[in-house]
UniProtKB/TrEMBL annotation:
InterPro entries named in the record: CobQ/CobB/MinD/ParA_Nub-bd_dom, DNA_Partitioning_ATPase, P-loop_NTPase
CDD domains: ParAB_family (cd02042)
Signal sequence extent: none
Superkingdom, taxonomy of origin: Bacteria
Protein name (database record): Chromosome partitioning protein
Native organism: Paludibacterium purpuratum
The CobQ/CobB/MinD/ParA nucleotide binding domain, residue ranges: 5-174
Pfam families recorded: CbiA (PF01656)
């Protein structure tokens, strides 16, 4: 069975592509057959994928056949979808029907919280979520969890009963790896240990922690 994760936020610049590409990189480094889908006009994730070296763990894109809908390559185990800014309405509903988990990257600023509030209301109202078929969690982006702004973000999300899964710090490491089609999980642990540790609770929520095999459950 293909497991699918939607990375979504209606606000541009929230960190969707950073989250999606590194998530795909994690599953590829763990030996999974991964597809990275990009439904954003900017195609940031697919541009990242195009720059990925052949000797790195393989990540595939959509298989597109003229006259047929795009679909994951045969044998895909994990599908990561990087969504467009402004996602709402029927397009959001259609994507929710295809996924098992929804990750929402958000930065701890009033503008980001205001822009995301209506999105949370819509996504929580979807039938798939009400029936607990799709689960949603938030990842704080470019933030120190000890700051006041992080606490305010936690309070904002608690009012919507949405969990904060983890905090990814503001570091140039993500920019550096992205430029070469790399993910954090393609780097030596000596260089990426601190940031990999920040990913642990996110991966645990997704069902991939330690020796657990989420894809086979």
């Amino acid at each position: 069975m293909v497991r699918s994760i939607l990375v979504a936020n209606p606000k541009g610049g929230s960190g969707k592509s950073t989250l999606a590409t590194n998530l795909a990189g994690f599953y590829a480094s763990a030996g999974r057959r991964v597809m990275l889908g990009d439904v954003d006009r900017q195609q940031s994730s697919l541009r990242w994928l195009a720059g990925r070296a052949d000797d790195l763990p393989a990540i595939q894109g959509w298989e597109v056949v003229p006259g047929e809908p795009a679909r994951p390559p045969r044998g895909t185990q994990v599908m990561v979808l990087d969504s467009a800014a402004g996602l709402h309405g029927k397009k959001l509903t259609a994507l929710l029907r295809r996924v098992d988990r929804v990750l929402v990257p958000i930065q701890p600023s009033p503008f980001d919280m205001w822009a995301t509030e209506d999105f949370f209301q819509q996504i929580l109202a979807e039938k798939a979520l009400r029936k607990s078929r799709v689960f949603m969690g938030v990842v704080g982006m470019r933030v120190d969890p000890r700051t006041r702004s992080a606490k305010e973000l936690e309070q904002f999300l608690a009012s919507h009963d949405i969990p904060v899964l983890g905090w990814l710090r503001d570091t140039q490491l993500y920019v550096q790896v992205a430029a070469g089609g790399l993910s954090l999980f393609d780097l030596p642990s000596s260089r990426s240990a601190r940031d990999r540790e920040a990913w642990a609770p996110i991966l645990d929520w997704l069902g991939q922690s330690g020796s657990d095999d989420w894809c086979d459950k």
